[in-house]
């Protein structure tokens, strides 16, 4: 990579890191507020939910722009889960809040390394576990939408 290209990538990465930290500073209290309103009122606050969705969407898009595929994959799954709540396909519970907090913490915790290395590849294995947890939750929500006569093979 030519010095000019490296300098440009470092500048883009610096901007990504700074904006990501700001987004994460904003999203964490929003996740807590989402949980509190859901517990207090028995339903999610659409405005808070949409704010969190947009924050993860922005993280995903900017991570993709700077080729941070690991962050992109994790935030994509979190965004998919959030979209299910936006569409009314699921009821928010503490497990979902935990997954959203873990996603936020994961991204925050790797930013220092990403800033130095200009890549998130070394976190691929750690992210894989989080992505599987998110996908498993999404699959479980989707399976609840299946007809009641759809008996699993293990029960036949």
Q: What does the radius of gyration come to?
A: 18 Å
Low-confidence stretches: 146-156
Our estimate of the beta-strand percent is under 5%
Please state the average pLDDT score.
Answer: 89
Computed structural class: mainly alpha
Instruction: Please give the number of β-strands.
Output: 0
What is the percent of helical residues?
over 70%
Overall 3D geometry? Answer: elongated
Largest β-sheet summary:
none
Series of secondary-structure elements, N-terminal to C-terminal = HHHHH
Number of helices: 5
Give the terminus-to-terminus CA distance: 59 Å
Description of the structure:
With 156 residues, the chain is mainly α. The chain is built from five helices and no strands. The protein has helices at 3-41, 46-65, 69-86, 94-117, 124-144. The radius of gyration is 18 Å and the shape is elongated. The model is unreliable at 146-156 (pLDDT under 50).
Features:
156 residues, mainly alpha, 5 helices, elongated, disordered C terminus
Helices and strands in order:
Elements: H1 3-41, H2 46-65, H3 69-86, H4 94-117, H5 124-144
Helix pairs in contact: 1-2, 1-4, 2-3, 3-4, 3-5, 4-5
Summarize it:
Helix 3 packs antiparallel against helix 4, helix 3 packs parallel to helix 5 (124-144) and helix 4 runs antiparallel to helix 5 (124-144).
């Amino acid at each position: 990579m030519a010095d000019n290209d490296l300098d440009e990538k470092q500048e883009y990465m610096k901007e990504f890191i700074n904006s990501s930290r700001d987004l994460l500073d904003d999203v964490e209290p929003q996740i807590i507020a989402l949980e509190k309103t859901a517990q207090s009122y028995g339903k999610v606050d659409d405005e808070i939910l949409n704010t969190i969705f947009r924050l993860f969407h922005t993280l995903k898009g900017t991570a993709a722009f700077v080729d941070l595929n690991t962050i992109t994959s994790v935030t994509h799954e979190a965004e998919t889960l959030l979209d299910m709540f936006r569409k009314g396909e699921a009821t928010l519970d503490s497990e979902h809040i935990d997954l959203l907090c873990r996603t936020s913490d994961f991204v925050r915790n790797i930013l220092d390394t990403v800033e130095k290395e200009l890549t998130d590849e070394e976190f691929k294995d750690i992210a894989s576990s989080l992505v599987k947890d998110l996908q498993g939750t999404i699959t479980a929500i989707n399976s609840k939408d299946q007809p009641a006569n759809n008996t699993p093979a293990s029960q036949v």
